[in-house]
Structure to design on (178 residues):
């Protein structure tokens, strides 16, 4: 039995879950998310929790059991609390600002980079070198943060670039002088 799959997903007040064909629809205060339900997995929805049941013991079904439970838990957490990723910008002259709903990044290129966030994502800059990405869809928050980081990945010699808060960059020694 999957350790993750057999744990029930607790439903806080204000969260509704319904099944439409091969997907679960999770509705909460922050929005609505759809979670796919693979073949062989069924949901047992009670008033305050959801239990996931699997039809057989095939390896693929067992793998989907834990995956589906994790995706449902992420959807429930997202519509109640939301998700957040934080990025730090390191480098002389590197900065970020939000102008007119777009993120404007100055990352050492000859031009500023304008990034427009998809619907459901909010980007804030608490300081010119700290960017906060928030939203209720965990996958989309992570993808937007990865897209922003991709504009100037941290380099190993000076440590300059866009990195996640708390990310450790392995530093290299560089050239040795005579």
């Amino acid at each position: 039995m999957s350790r993750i799959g057999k744990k029930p997903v607790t439903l806080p007040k204000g969260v509704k879950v319904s099944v439409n064909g091969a997907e679960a629809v999770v509705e909460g205060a922050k929005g609505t998310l759809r979670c796919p339900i693979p073949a062989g997995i069924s949901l047992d929805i009670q008033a305050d929790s959801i239990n996931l049941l699997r039809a057989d013991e095939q390896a693929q079904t067992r793998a989907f059991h834990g995956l589906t439970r994790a995706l449902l838990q992420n959807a429930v957490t997202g519509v109640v609390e939301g998700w957040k990723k934080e990025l730090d910008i390191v480098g002389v002259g590197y900065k970020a600002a939000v102008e007119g709903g777009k993120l404007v990044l100055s990352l050492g290129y000859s031009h500023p980079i304008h990034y427009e966030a998809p619907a459901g994502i909010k980007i804030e800059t608490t300081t010119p070198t700290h960017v906060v990405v928030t939203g209720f869809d965990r996958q989309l928050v992570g993808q937007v943060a990865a897209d922003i980081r991709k504009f100037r990945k941290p380099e190993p010699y000076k440590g300059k670039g866009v990195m996640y808060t708390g990310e450790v960059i392995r530093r290299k020694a560089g050239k040795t002088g005579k």
